Amino acid sequence: MGVDLAAEATKTAVAMIDWSRGRASVREVRVGADDDLVLRAVMEAEKAGIDCPFGWPDTFVEFVRAHRDGDVVVPEELAGSAWRRGLAYRVTDEVVRRETGLIPLSVAADLIGHTAMRCAGILAKLARAGTPVDRSGAGIVVEVYPAATLKTWHLPYRRYKGRENLAHLSEILDALLGAAPWLDLGRHDETCRRWDDAFDAVVAALAARAASLGLVGTPTPEEAASARTEGWIAVPTCTLDALRP
Hints:
This protein has 245 residues and is an alpha/beta fold. The protein contains ten helices and six strands, in the order βββαβααααβααβααα. This is Nuclease with RNAse H fold.
């Protein structure tokens, strides 16, 4: 399943895909998903891809702690912007930027931080309910990034957000279905054409499928510790057709 998470339920979408009988059938797409719906959907899934940072940069967390204690030290050898970049972006953000050319939103310095606060609460509830949570993606949940996923599969990945871009959203959905004729949206086709959140949730579910098959980039041994605290974006390393049931 996939979640396009937002700070509030009104902009949050959930998509569930059934992979059986030689097809990938979209079983459910819901827009306006509250925490309870997200939690139920994740706990029903074999793998759940959530489009939201799972944590904050370790360097940023240490900076905030030092600031609270009145003990911030700015390295003299770094220019201001370089030092701030090291605080604003996670290890996985820099890996995605290097490998795809896309720059994820900074959870430490952009509005995505509001969504990450909600995500932290959801992950905590999952852990308390007995669902294994590993921010590096080794458990049931995995962090995904729809734009990077689409770009990896050589599909359009820009300018489909918002009501003014519905025509382009529909074109991108057609491109996705053309590249994956085994993906059956069923009665949810129109929802994915009207709501970019719903479309992103479906892409998140496809990325989760790639993660469940072990077909995504994983942290190196040097990156593993950061991935467990900061989160890790699972970008597919396979073709879209490799997900075929």
